[in-house]
Description:
Blueprint: E1 2-7, H1 10-27, E2 32-37, H2 47-54, E3 59-61, H3 63-70, E4 85-89, H4 94-104, E5 108-111, E6 123-128, H5 131-138, E7 147-149, H6 163-169, E8 178-182, H7 187-207, E9 212-216, H8 223-227, E10 237-239, E11 249-252, H9 256-264, E12 268-273, H10 284-290, H11 295-310, H12 316-321, E13 328-331, H13 335-346, H14 349-362, H15 368-382
Helix pairs in contact: 1-15, 7-13, 9-14, 10-11
Amino acid sequence: MDIVLVANSPGELTSLVKxxxxxxxxxSPDSRITLFLTPCQYSSxxxxxxxxxxxxxxxxxxxxxxxxxVLGGTLPRDIKFGxxxxxLFLGGDLLHATLIAKKLGFxxxxxxxxxxIGWVGFYEKFFxxxxxxxxxxxxxxxxxxxxxxxxxxxxxxxxxxxxxxxRQKWHLDPARPTLALMPGSRDWEIKxxxxxxxxxxxxxxxxxxxxxxMVIVAxxxxxxxxxxxxxxxxxxxxxxxxSATAADLALTIPGxxxxxxxxxxxxxxxxxxxxxxxxxxxxxxxxxLGIVPLFGGLVKRAVAYAVNxxxxxxxxxxxxxxxxxxxxxxxxxxxxxxxxxxxxLLRDPDRxxxxxxxxxxxxGAPGAADHITEVMLNEALSAPA
Length: 385
């Protein structure tokens, strides 16, 4: 059968598409898995390359190829879909998965963590992570039979090295404190965050003389691209996510980074700078208003202020637990305050240990990918011809 996955941003590919594609591949090795990348203002521009190299999919349809096809054009490489298949939405706009499913004549499913659900009548089931999401969607009058709790799919996505193994691999001294820094995967994030990280690290190295620092390089970027924004030569190691376990503590931005670190049990501090809102992309109509000269900057500043004021937590472990597991700095970031907190944490191993234990259980148990693939394969194969 044809398995069609729909997603768009870097976080979705690593956290949602990867475990689902792996599970479909093991459960149904003869199926063809096709990934449709849909338009996304958060795109890094490297999604196609990453998907082809790192995801167990047979075909990758770029957002440009998708747009041409959905408007009446043909797919590249003369891809022909069979009569048996299913579509799974994993991120972006539900409309895209709806259009794809309708055009192919396949049933549509969606995995959603929390948002308003549209196009309800076009979907067979909405897979959701927990009872919090269930209560949210039940209030939207979604039929109970269309909601199925499966667990958090991100829990199936991350595997890390053992702490000792990661330290040995990168020649980090286990007797010295190690701080990991996660600047993100998009150019605008890296360009904005690295100078701020350098200010914080410089302050820390003035207090903790033997501090070791490692920059976690996302799969959508490269060491070369990061180094061109790193001016102070303050970072000792550039390593992939699986090696973040070498760190005693991590400094990160919001997003799937916070969940990845939690799943690895790495204590973390999250910072969300809002002193320069113009660099932050917006969604939907706001995206287009935000790029209007002069006026766009005012729109972004107003949106950033409103979102920050009305959002209880930004770090995913905090959102999931509905309490502050990891510290969050939001708004105008003062490097000295962040450095003071990090210094205190690095000098308090008991607190770091407790944070690590809480993070490891904050997102729940693995198994969501198993539940989703089982339901989809059983329903597709049992459907009347």
